[in-house]
Design brief:
The protein has 140 residues and is mainly α. The chain has helices spanning 3-21, 29-35, 40-51, 55-73, 78-84, 90-101, 105-113; strands at 125-126, 132-133. The protein has 2 domains: 3-52; 58-133, Homeodomain-like (Arc Repressor Mutant, subunit A, Orthogonal Bundle). Residues 13-111 form the HTH araC/xylS-type domain.
């Protein structure tokens, strides 16, 4: 591995770490490319070459992984979970979740917790900044 490719990999890791840390924030390729000190097109091309998927797909997958955890461990509704992990559309969330996991968010919860989606409860979830959110308080 050359010194230049090591530098590129290090910068790509910095951008991927930002996605892992700030997955629920509204991130776009241009912002991530700035973190990696690259142009958007070069960043997208290199990210895919190194990690095997586009930055957008990686971010979606990270969000779905976090949603899986929340669906298993909280009483948050699917809508609240969708918003808490950074999706802005329930339809996009459900479609992406189904593509990645192989079943809908509601089916996933039923299969992994042994019951249907619970109604509003008192188990807190956290926003992207670590603050507790009461169930239902994400609705505009």
């Amino acid at each position: 591995m050359t010194r230049d490719s090591e530098d590129v990999n290090r910068r790509l890791l910095r951008a991927r770490d930002a996605m892992d840390r700030d997955y629920a924030a509204p991130l776009d390729v241009a912002a991530l490319a700035r973190v990696a000190l690259m142009s958007s097109s070069h960043f997208s091309r290199e990210f895919r070459r190194v990690f095997g998927e586009t930055p957008y797909r990686y971010l979606q997958r990270r969000r779905v992984e976090r949603a899986m955890f929340l669906l298993r461990t909280t009483r948050a509704s699917v809508t609240d979970t969708c918003m808490a992990v950074g999706f802005t559309s329930l339809g996009t969330f459900s479609r992406t979740f189904t593509e990645v996991v192989g079943c809908s968010p509601s089916d996933y919860r039923t299969r992994t917790t042994g019951g249907p989606e619970p109604g509003p409860g008192t188990w807190p979830i956290r926003d992207p900044f670590g603050n507790h959110i009461r169930i239902g308080s994400l609705k505009g």
